[in-house]
Every structure is written in C-alpha cells, then in structure tokens.
Amino acid sequence: MEKKDKSGGGNERYILSSVDSALQILNLFLQDAQLSGTEIAKKMGISRSTAFRFLVTLENRGFLFRSESGKYRLGISIFSLGMMAHSRNELALILHPYLEKMVEETGETCHLVVREGAADVVFLDRVLGTNSLRMDTPLGHKVKLHNTGTGKAILAFSQAEAINDYIRHMDFHKETGRSIGSAQELLAVLEKARADGYAMDNEESEPGLTCIARPLLDSHGTAYAAVSVSGPTTRMIMKKDQILSALKRIIKQIHYDSVDQV
Q1: Ordered DSSP codes for the chain
Q2: Which of 62, 132, 146, 224 is the most buried (most CB within 10 A)?
C-alpha cells in the first residue's frame, strides 16, 4: 500500500505506507526512551493489533528491544547504523586533508572509499584533481569490489572467508573488455595486490580511466578503507611511479598519525 508523502518532496506515489509507518514508530523514540505497545498504537492512531505486527517486525530485525516490563526501546541495529554513519563521517573529516595533500603532489583526483555491504565499495570523499581532464565520481557512488582499484585493495587485505564469500556470490559481469571475468583471475589479481601493497583499475570500470589504490589497514592488517588516485590512463601510466610514491608516503603518514593520536 502506498501513502501520500507529507514532506512535499513530490514523490507521493512512491511512498510505501507500511515502511512509512514503521519509520514513524521509530521516530517516536526521539521523544520517549521507552513506550508500550498500547502507547505506540495511541500515538500512531492505529489499532493495537496493527501496532503489534509492526513492533514484532522491528524487534525481529533488531531495531527495537522489548524489555522485561513489556515496553519497547531502540535496539542494537539502530545503534549500529548510527555508529556506522558517524564513523564514516568522522573518517572523511579526518582524512580529507590527506586527500588534499595527495592532489597537491599528483594533480589527479583522490578518493576515499569504504566497503558497502558484501559486494560493493562506496565513494565516501574526494578531492578533485587540478587538471582540466579529470575523474569526477559522485560521492555515494557504488561499484563492485572487483571492478575498481580501491575495491581490489580492500578485498586483497580482507579475511580469506570474506574473499571466498564474495567469489561465491559474484557473477563477474564485465563492465568493460578489461574487467575481471572469473574467480581465478580475481584471486591472481588479489595475490599480486597483496605482494605489491596496492591495486589498480586498468580501465575495468570505465574505458580511458585508470586508478591506483592503497588500503588503509587496522592493527590486524585488515583493510577498513582505501585511498586512490584516478585519472586518464595516459597520464596515470606516465606518472605511475610518482603516484605510487606519494600514496605510500601519505598512507604511512595516516597510519603514523592514527597511532600517535591513540
């Protein structure tokens, strides 16, 4: 069932009534730390049986927690999502000056990327290059891990279980003629990336564009993000050594500063 959008956004026909109601229920907890099913039904203007179905669903997904008193509180899933959003915003704020430094040294666009779910990376931050012809990937854009240098850098320094799980669920659709087309090819590329300490996108997501990426590693050596330099293939090949040197130095500085601040 669809519902009118009261926000005035002009997308009324796309609003799902059930989802909208569930989100309204969650918003009730902005004012009250805990509420009973009866209180929620009254505030929502719905029957107790309808409220019960919403509450059971939200509890089952971890968005609500039912205490021994029978009242509901926000659940761990809400906390986890909030912490994830906060940490990602914090990460972008902390690392943005390093991206600026990278652009100063290379002249090419620099991105900060994190893993999104099981199969994608999402572009979290960027600083545009100083050249007239430059890569301009929008923030929030998602790409399959194996189709971008940052994704391969993250995947190469992930746990073996995560790599195997990715391969099991991936059909390896080729975005370009240079895209990785099989699990065997991906495993070989990841092995090389681990040995080299960086990964590349050799026109695998878009013809004419090349990306060089290094992972950001936690204390266990597992990647939690990646930083890349991207630009037209001809320029990237010509400046590859310079870019690799700058990436290595700045990633090392990020790790050093992170340890120093603890």
Answers
A1: -B---TT--S-GGG-BHHHHHHHHHHHHTTT-S-B-HHHHHHHHT--HHHHHHHHHHHHHTTSEEE-TTS-EEE-HHHHHHHHHHHHHHHHHHHHHHHHHHHHHHH-SEEEEEEEETTTEEEEEEEE--SSSS---PPTT-EEEGGGSHHHHHHHHTS-HHHHHHHHHT-----SSTTS--SHHHHHHHHHHHHHHT-EEEESSSSTTEEEEEEEEE-TTS-EEEEEEEEEEHHHHHHTHHHHHHHHHHHHHHHHHHHHHH-
A2: 146
